[in-house]
Amino acid sequence: MTRVGSHFTFCSPQRILRRMVVERDEQNVITQLFSLDDNVVESAQTLFFDGILSSEIISVKQNVEAEKIKELVRDYNYFDLSVEPLSFVIEMNNKPLLIDFGTNAMNEVNSRLAKLAQQNTEFPIFDLIASCVYFPALLLGREGELAQNCRTNLILWENADLVNKRLKIGTHICEI
Prior knowledge:
Layout: E1 2-12, E2 15-24, E3 30-35, E4 46-54, H1 66-72, E5 77-80, E6 97-100, H2 106-119, H3 125-139, E7 155-158, E8 172-175
Parallel strand pairs: 1-4, 5-6
Antiparallel strand pairs: 1-2, 2-3, 4-7, 7-8
């Protein structure tokens, strides 16, 4: 059993929680979410990190055959960040944003995230997380929300602008 806390926990676009602890078992199943503010004393053996906790990044390209992607993503504003040269200017419309890094390897995602940040420093960090964590899960028929009884690897989004809730140059992820 491990307990991990952070400034924010991204459960879904509608449920972003402050100062939460995520407890999970050895099989990466979330056993409990609880607030640090509701406890009189801090929970024993809780690791606290600066940043945002979320479920794992999901690549549509790694889970769907290439010829089916175009059909599946028609209801999304889809950006494939695995294609070089990376040119990504965010144009918001009324479709949900779906960003595909083409991988879940941390070093590759961080490299592409750095390039994305250089072009889009004003991008809302929670929109970014939703676009590569929550919406890909829904698209693939998985549970999108980080909640009790869900099985997922936890990702820590570090060095984001937590005050303005923006992506910034230097924002990166690591697996917890």
